[in-house]
Amino acid sequence: MNTRIYYSLISSYGNFRIKPYLKTFRSIYLLSIFFAVLFYTKSLGITLRFDKLNITDGLSQSSVTAIFQDKQGFLWIGTQDGLNRYDGYTVVIYKTNPEDPFSISDNWITCITEDTSGNLWIGTAGGGLNKFDKYNERFTKYRTQTDNKNSLSADRIRCLHVDLDNNIWIGTEGGGLNIYDPERDSFDIYLANSSAQGGFSGFTVVSVVEDSKNQVWIGTDNNGLYSYDKTSRKLLNYSENFKSSVNISMDQISILYADFNDMIWIGTENGLFLLDPKSSKLSTIPLQKEIKWEATKIHIISIQRDSENTLWIGTNNGLFIKDINENTFYPHQHNPRDPQSLSENHVLSIIEDVTGIIWIGTNAGGLNKFDRKRSLFVHFKQDISNPNTLSDNNIWSFAEDIDGTIWIGTNRGLNHFDPKKKIFRTYRSDPLTEGGLSHNVVRALWVDHEGNIWCGTDGGGLNLLDRRSKKITIFQHDPENPNTIIDNRIRTLFEDEKNILWIGTWNGLNAYDYKNDLMIHYKHEPLNNNSLSDNRIRSLWQDRKGNLWIGTYGGLNVLDKSTGIFHSHKNDPLKNNSITNDRVLCIYEDTAERLWIGTFQGLNLFDRKNQSFSHFTVKDGLPNDVIYGIVEDEFGMLWLSTNNGLVRYDPGRSQLESFKNFDVNDGLQSNEFNGGAYLKSKRGAIYFGGINGFNQFFPGNVRENTHIPPVVITSFKKFDRSITLPQSILYTREIHLSYRDNFFAFEFAALDFTNPFKNQYAYKLEGFDENWIECANRRYASYTNLDGGEYVFKVRGSNNDGVWNNQGEAIRIIITPPFWKTWWFRILSVLVIIAFGYSYYRFKVGRIEKQRQLLKQEVEKSTTELISINKRLVSAQQKTEKYASQSRLLYEVGQRISKDLDLDVVLNNAVSQARDAFDYFGVMLFLFDHEREGLLLKSIAGGYKDVFAKDLFIKLDEGMIGQAAKSRRIELSNDVRQNKHYIKKADEVTLSELAIPIIGGKELIGVLDVQSDQLNAFNNSDVDAMETFSTQLASAIKNARLYEQAHKEINERRRAEEQLRESRDKLTAAKKETDTIFKNIDEGLFLLNSNTEIGAQYSQSLEVIFDQKNLNGKTLIKILEDKIPANTLSSISEYIKIMFDDSIDDDSLNALNPLNEIELYYNDEGGFFKETRFLMFRFKRIVNRKGKTQNIMVSVRDVTAQKQLARRLEQTEADQKKQIEWMLSILHIEPSLLREFMDGAKSELEHISKLLRNDTNDENYQSLLNHAGRSMHLVKGNASLLELKFFEKKAHQFEDKITELKQLANISGSHFIPLVLQLEDMRNTVKEIDKLIDRLGNIHNQFRPKREFESQMFIKSLQNLVTNLAKDYDKEVILNHDEFDPGLIPYEFRLKVKEILIQLIRNAIYHGIEPLQQRIKINKQPHGTLFLKSFLDNRKLRILFRDDGQGLKLDQLRQKAKQLNQWKSAEIDNWNDNQLAELIFVSGISTAENTDLIAGRGMGMDAVRSRIQRIKGQIHLKFAENEYCEFDIEIPITNNQGSIKTSKVPIHQ
Amino acid sequence: MGQPTKLMIVDDSSIIRKLIQNYLNEYNIEIVGEAGDGKSAVELFKQLRPDIVTMDIVMPEMDGLSVIDEIRKIDSSIKIMVVTALSDKSTGIEAIKRGAKSYVIKPFTPDKLKHAFSKLLQ
């Protein structure tokens, strides 16, 4: 049984259990009216949302009295303080200016209109009438002139009208009606009489309209309506006709409006009337049924019917709107809570512009803009002050009820929405009372086939709202019961045709057969490929084939319900056609059975056949990749909600046009939508929910902006300043500029006000720009540094929906070039440049210069030749009369061709001129081709011009021409048929031919060939003339060739110069950059050349790092020399050498870098050590083009700070390690012993310190060393006893040093320094351990032992010592202490006694007890025994210590004594046994062969004796060789120590 | 593939020798010989005449520097790659001075070794 909790419901259906928000019927009613108006105008299907234009946007004043759109498309806005021209972006203000005779006459504008010639007419409230000439941007004023009957009758203008004849109808205040005829420039006055004073007095005409039948209607503000028939020219008081039929006065007219069917709307101060002129029927039109208009006295101010047939009535109390099919007006008023409502209720003016936008001018509220195209989306949101709105703005889910109402799940409760009445009711969970929802976050909704509402919550499980019983049933997860829902966090619901409810949760899927109460769970099973791919379910969809699609956060799944097998699709980065993302937010099958999947990364279209996905992402035009919801509308379009607005996707259109994006500016609740919150109702309304409420819309209402916007150029600026043109920029077609105006800009606008910031532009300056520049929504273009010449600036624009005006606008720009760009200056400057380039390069191109000189000479020479030839010719001319004229011609030809320098021109001219001059049949010129060793046809005139191939080639001995060339002699034949050389090259008619070789100097240049179709055509004079001509040609050709060559060289030189300058500029720029870098970086940067010298360029930090100035040219080694040890330096210098060895690779070099991190020692100026620095060097080889290392770039950084930090860190770590080591050693020691040791060690070290400070005035260093050694030995012994290894080691090192010193012959004070240092170290150690102990104090105190325990410890420590030492020396030793009672020892002596015993035990084990083998050999017990006994003997404490070892080796003692050199050898020989035994108390005597930590320094027994002496005791020695050695210690006890005796406690282990 | 490059590995550690071999086996090379000490390295070199030698510095019998001297006497164009654990850079510099062309510090990564080796192959 699943967990079901039943609740009874309080109220009837529709109010399952709602809080009593709605108290009375009345309040519901009022609210519904209010909201209908605020959010939705039912009949219009539009939401009234107004954009605002006000003084903050540039408007001159906030009371908009008149609005007018001119033919160009500008919006003219009249205010009480200035005239404004608006282009969608900026406002241009026109105001009166007393200094400008062409300014407007008054700032208070009352009306605006435009005549057929494009002049604007502006009526003012006191300044008469203005005509604005847009071309010249000038106002012409028309005012009352008392002496002129044909002038304006009054200066207060109320209305304007332009009729078809271009007459201006002017309604005045108190001056009647004026009709102005521009042709006559005269005013005719009606409805007014001239007064005696010279002016007029008459009616106030407030409105003039003309209907389609040319009937003019004139409204007055106190005398009713007049009509004027233009044909009969009759003015009629129309009010008279129905004065009796209407019971309300309509005399006070404020506005007239002629409707499309010639019905006249009459707005008055008392309300609205409609006149049907056909029937003369006048009816009153109530604006609001509910409110009696007489009572409220609504003043009608403006009337406008828009292109959608909606009538807009502007009043002093808001707007009233009526559709043509409706009878009711819908009011709209300013709502302080809704920033998108009308800005002010007092409406002054209304117009519709060409795009269908309604502009509403208000009193003090600026301009309001309503655009039906952008009012598609109705927005519902929570209004906290109104309970009859959404309960929360975060929308999660929708479901449509069977009655057409909508259920809405939010973050705070379930809402029930009636789309007809726009009423919301809320259901919530309430912890205080029973009943209600189980949870407030409603993530999923489903209305089942019986109309019950299933409501999935986020954490509270499933709620069932039963339609009939009005009860809520709650289904929740019960871990104990498998027949409950799988998880309480529900995300999506779906009921299939078998009435199985599929429940997608955050932790698996349920199939719930609610009829039979059977729950099946589906979960992801890691090892089962046929299970769900993920447990986080986000969406469910059943396709037409009955497959259930499950969108999870881990892939798309499809369930085959017959088998229960899940098949999953996941993103595979390696597969292009896998799903784009594993997080599937929504699934939708459209009417074409295409399956669409919305994911976190785009839209996917699933191809079932190929099991592949096509992708649609931001790249394809989506505004965002997160697809929350997909809904198909009845036109086959898909609507997608995203994180960045809504998208309408047309799958039928090509990629580029298929997406239309809507954003918050279009009326969306927000750009961010929510997953799961989408619905298409049966009526076709689409719902999308997001984070700020939800949108409802009918897709059929979407309108595109098809208006082709006019494009205007609104400003022209030079150097960023607007300039005054002879006429308005709008009419300017050509602008002349000087080359100095090298920065100019245009601003332009596409006049479409729908969403000007989405208007797009493209422009092009013809003559400069090759292509159109697509500048998106930028609306200016600027140009700089144009060359002189003619250009055309063209601009195109589009509206917000991308409808382009391809015609656009254009202006011609003519730029006068500067004088240096005129032709004469160019020539001059070429000469100057050549001259300059010449001198500049002379030193570099000496060779070329020489050649040029030669060329020049040659040119001169050949010109001289030419002249002399010409001179000869002149003389020849004098001789031969016959050819006089021909010779002149020839001369002229010669002159001309020798002047011309272009070779082709020269030759072509020469040949054709020769032919013309001599009237030959044909002339040909061949040039000698060195490479091909033959003659190439160069020019041809007459004769065979079209017969011979252009590239005719003749071998050197071919035909007459070839012969002439080869022999370099003239070939003449007056009958070619007889000539053996003659050959036919084509179909020729030649009968005579003359071939003349052209020779220049010694060189064959070519052949001039003259042909004739006559026999005997050439005589001697022909030969002479042609020979002369060929000589001239030779010179001309040579000149031309020289010129070409010179020209080429000059060009080359100029190019070289250009390149040089470019690279020099680049170098300069690069240098500047490096200079900056070098100045500012912290690193030292420099270049090393192969001599390891530092280059001139280095960063300034380098001097700081090296502590040296002027590093240029110094070698790196030199700089490092005094800072680095010599051996390191040498390897550095080797290293730098190696770096120039290109066979070594960079990695090896880096690995070898000896300067990677190096310590440098810096001295001060006086050469004394100043500081240590650590530098880090990095080397980089600079390789030239050939791959050879030329320089090394070095970067060096001062890393001292880092290094020091690292060292400190190391030190700290070491200290810590040491302390831990100590602590560990200390911890195992019994605290009292430790304390004892510390006290002892302190006093001993103090003692040594005193000795070393020479406080004892002991002059004998040897004895001083002995004393110090003794003390340290004791300390060492104690440390060893307590196993304080580290301390023992230190003590041992100290002893080592003493031993070392003792062996020196001459000891001086300075030798003690290491000892002092070592001692200091030990004292510090003791202090630190002290501190450590203090820190451990508490722990230690807890263990502070009782006295008996102390006694036990005394023995135990001795026993430990015995055990340890025996082990160390590989001996078997036991300590017998049965008769020893440490309690007998007075406390203050205890440490001393212990020290003594330690030393005795040490000596006994080391020296006394024999090794095991030896003992066995001499029949001793294998283990040695140490016997310890204590007793009181007559105020003395006696302690006996005996070992059963080898006793004393007297011989060895004697030998040692001799070695000491303290006594005479003979003396020693005479000593008895006791005297010899005494030696063991002498420092320096030791019988051990090796020195080690424990014994063998001869520094034990003397310490024992001095210790006993210090406590005023005695020690006696007894021994027997190979048997025993016994020490008897006597310590005197004073009275006050007697108490100790009483505390005596027998000690047992 | 042309003639394989003949490589000889000199290192007293057989593991290192194996490692070098493994890392470099992707190149077109033939390991002609291995030596574990300086003396046998020189002997082997005389017989095998490899194109490239990898050389340890610290070795028994004869140190790497001396080996470099010896084999360079035999073939002055031999390409030597020093592979050493020595952190003393001056020895490394000395090796280069004596004619080694490449220097790799142990322990090395495959990439490091390969990089140095391919440089050497060029």
Question: Could you walk me through the main structural features you see in this protein, from its secondary elements to its overall organization?
Answer:
The complex is a heterodimer of chains A (1549) and B (122). Chain A is α+β, with helices and mostly antiparallel strands and 1549 residues long. Chain A is built from 25 helices and 84 strands. In chain A, helix 15 runs antiparallel to helix 16 and helix 18 runs parallel beside helix 19. Chain B is α/β, with parallel strands linked by helices and 122 residues long. Chain B has one domain: Rossmann fold (3-Layer(aba) Sandwich). Chain B has a five-stranded parallel β-sheet, with helices on both faces. In chain B, helix 2 runs parallel beside helix 3. The longest helix of chain B has 12 residues. The model of chain B has no long low-confidence stretch (mean pLDDT 86). The chains are: A alpha+beta (1549), B alpha/beta (122). At the A-B interface, helix 11 and helix 12 of A face helix 4, strand 5 and helix 5 of B.
Looking at this protein, list some descriptive labels:
heterodimer; A: 1549 residues; alpha+beta; six-stranded antiparallel sheet; five-stranded antiparallel sheet; 27% helix; extended; disordered N terminus; disordered C terminus; B: 122 residues; alpha/beta; Rossmann fold; five-stranded parallel sheet; globular
Secondary-structure blueprint:
The complex is a heterodimer of chains A (1549) and B (122).
Chain A: E1 3-7, H1 25-39, E2 51-53, E3 64-69, E4 75-79, E5 82-86, E6 91-94, E7 109-114, E8 120-124, E9 129-133, E10 138-142, E11 157-162, E12 168-172, E13 177-181, E14 186-190, E15 192-194, E16 200-202, E17 205-210, E18 215-220, E19 225-229, E20 234-237, E21 253-258, E22 264-268, E23 271-276, E24 281-285, H2 293-296, E25 300-305, E26 310-315, E27 318-323, E28 330-332, E29 347-352, E30 358-362, E31 367-370, E32 378-380, E33 395-400, E34 406-410, E35 413-418, E36 423-427, E37 442-447, E38 453-457, E39 462-465, E40 472-476, E41 490-495, E42 500-505, E43 508-513, E44 518-522, E45 537-542, E46 548-552, E47 555-560, E48 565-569, E49 584-589, E50 595-599, E51 602-607, E52 612-616, E53 627-632, E54 638-642, E55 645-649, E56 659-662, E57 673-680, E58 686-690, E59 693-697, E60 711-718, E61 721-722, E62 734-738, E63 743-750, E64 761-766, E65 773-776, E66 780-784, E67 789-798, E68 804-816, H3 823-842, H4 846-879, H5 884-899, H6 903-918, E69 922-929, E70 934-942, E71 953-955, H7 959-967, E72 971-973, E73 992-1000, ...
Parallel strand pairs in A: 62-68, 80-81
Antiparallel strand pairs in A: 1-40, 2-31, 3-4, 4-5, 5-6, 7-8, 8-9, 9-10, 11-12, 12-13, 13-14, 15-16, 17-18, 18-19, 19-20, 21-22, 22-23, 23-24, 25-26, 26-27, 27-28, 29-30, 30-31, 32-59, 33-34, 34-35, 35-36, 37-38, 38-39, 39-40, 41-42, 42-43, 43-44, 45-46, 46-47, 47-48, 49-50, 50-51, 51-52, 53-54, ...
Chain B: E1 5-10, H1 14-24, E2 29-35, H2 38-48, E3 52-55, H3 64-74, E4 79-84, H4 89-97, E5 102-105, H5 110-121
